[in-house]
Amino acid sequence: MCILHTADFHHNHGWFDWLIAQQTKFDLLVLAGDLLDMRASGRQYPLSTQVKEVREKLAALKTPAAICTGNHDIWMTNPIATDVWAEGGWLKNCRRENLWIDGDIFKFMDEHIAVVKHNTDRWPARASIVVVHNPPKNLKTSVNACNKIDFGSHDVARNLVQNRPDFVLCGHVHNPVAWMDSWENTTVLNPGFGTGPVPNHIIIDTESCEIIRVIAETKKHNQKTRRFSLTPVCPALSRRKTDHNHLIIRKIRNSIYWK
Ligand SMILES: [Zn+2]
Ligand SMILES: [Zn+2]
């Protein structure tokens, strides 16, 4: 299975449109939380507007997708007013065939995949792939590269140790020290947050465990023009390596960007 793993779109319309345009190239899409942006939730983009727009984007996804909430996607229920979108209700309400969200566990192409709501204490057991917003604490995927502060979650780390999935696909830390780290046999991935017109993303082939991260950056070329580049980071291999990975990676590369 070929998975496209992204996270932290933060209400970026262009990135949602890119995801919609790319979707048919993958078996499964993963959006690991922070679809909305609380920082922009003032007058210009009230959360109700963001929710409406993001729900329209999600409705355009035809490829199977697993999407969890992040800290920007959840607000508390207002005790004096009905708010059906609170507590991640706006995303929960998007659940349909081939769109799995918070709390779902499903079997897909020989993998058991769990989608975990933000700040959930316990994961479902036996998942081989877990989609959760916060990375586990004490790995490089949760440490901010600028200030070296670890923004990872103790709960996620505890669940990782108890359940030992093959992959934990997360987001949240926008500029992690490393986009990939591992604990024993579990590979943890965090694509990070880029500055280009397409989101940073990770492509995972679960059979060969060939993994590519693509960084999308807009750099100032000179004072006036901006240059955009997609940089594939060297493919990494996890423990499920098999002999045919090189063929598969070539296939992935050719079919998606490198033709
Ligand atoms: Zn974020
Ligand atoms: Zn976050």
TrEMBL record:
Gene3D superfamilies: 3.60.21.10. InterPro entries: Calcineurin-like_PHP, Metallo-depent_PP-like, Metallophosphoesterase_sf. It comes from the Bacteria. One of its GO terms (molecular function) is hydrolase activity. Residues 3-176 form the Calcineurin-like phosphoesterase domain. This is Calcineurin-like phosphoesterase domain-containing protein. It comes from Termitidicoccus mucosus.
